[in-house]
Design brief:
mainly alpha, A middle domain of Talin 1, globular
């Protein structure tokens, strides 16, 4: 089986690892993350703010995020050719460096926001958090070490996953930021990926439902096996489907997940936290269910879920 050499450590990491002039031309010539008409609408929405500092910060943040999305689009197009995997790894490192610079910029600007811009400050803080979260997950986890020395299928899979994770994170960031200034703008129209978002939303609904049922199962019939299974499910959701939630919900999920884990590990009574977690998951499910891409889909309501779970519990008790 073929391998990729040399290792990433041997490829000069820093913007010199590729001829950036050539890559910049490729990005400029490829389709942009936003279509021209949507870019006009976004620009008009931002310019509608009376605060010059808000316009500058928001405009610069969006410009940098769109630039990162353009790089990711180039990686996606390169993935159709296996002989570009090493180039894609280098492009991911470039995205890593530019994304870290974006986070630093956002953090500085968020601190300087006045009290009248509290909502914008919270959105910027959320964007910085979500980008940092995914950068650590990718570059301090899956892409650590001599990735380029691994087999071609392994490298390909890791690049696909990293590109998809970052793309989803950055698109959500743009949607949340733009809708501050143009609430009527349908987020699904910003990016031509409605089919992919439908699949993600359906997967998210399914995983949330499974979690809700598992939590309820532990509450009704606590056992060590059920608790261990729930803990594993909580971790798998955090490392998987959580990426399809709006990033503002990530902190809440991770906080409750950590508290439940610590409570169980220290032999404390997890029931109060499980009750809180159950309510949190139902709220998340209700929000996901209202997404535009699920409008014509047969997704059960939280009331129907409660009735179904109650029916199952009565059947087991009988």
């Amino acid at each position: 089986m073929s391998t990729l050499v040399p290792s990433l450590d041997e490829i000069g990491l820093q913007p010199l690892f590729l001829d950036l002039q050539i890559e910049t031309n490729q990005v400029d010539e490829s389709p942009r993350a936003l279509s021209a008409d949507l870019q006009i609408r976004v620009d008009a929405a931002i310019k509608g703010s009376a605060d010059a500092a808000v316009r500058e910060t928001t405009g610069s943040t969006l410009e940098q995020i769109i630039r990162l999305l353009d790089w990711l689009r180039l990686i996606d197009s390169n993935l159709r050719r296996l002989d570009t995997l090493r180039e894609s790894l280098s492009l991911l490192e470039l995205v890593h460096l530019e994304a870290r610079s974006l986070v630093e910029y956002i953090q500085v600007q968020a601190i300087e926001m006045t009290s009248s811009d509290e909502v914008l400050r919270e959105v910027l803080d959320g964007i910085a958090y979500s980008i940092t979260h995914d950068l650590r997950r990718i570059f301090e986890g899956e892409l650590m070490g001599p990735i380029a020395e691994q087999s071609t299928p392994v490298v390909y899979g890791k690049i696909v996953h990293a590109q998809g994770l970052l793309n989803n994170c950055l698109q959500q960031s743009i949607i949340t930021l733009v809708q501050l200034f143009d609430p009527a703008l349908d987020g699904s129209k910003l990016f031509n990926d409605s089919e992919e978002r439908l699949e993600q939303s359906l997967l998210l609904c399914g995983d949330l439902l499974a979690l809700i049922r598992s939590v309820r199962g532990v509450q009704c019939r606590p056992s060590q096996d059920a608790i261990n299974a729930l803990l594993g499910q909580i971790v798998r959701f955090r490392d998987g489907s959580m990426q399809y939630l709006m990033y503002r919900d990530w902190k809440g999920y991770e906080k409750l997940a950590e508290e439940i884990t610590e409570s169980i590990e220290h032999d404390s009574d997890p029931e109060p936290l499980l009750k809180q977690f159950h309510c949190f998951l139902e709220t998340l499910f209700a929000h996901v269910r209202m997404r535009a891409v699920l409008t014509n889909m047969a997704v059960p309501s939280t009331t129907e879920i409660r009735e179904e779970i109650a029916t199952d519990e009565r059947a087991i008790a009988a």
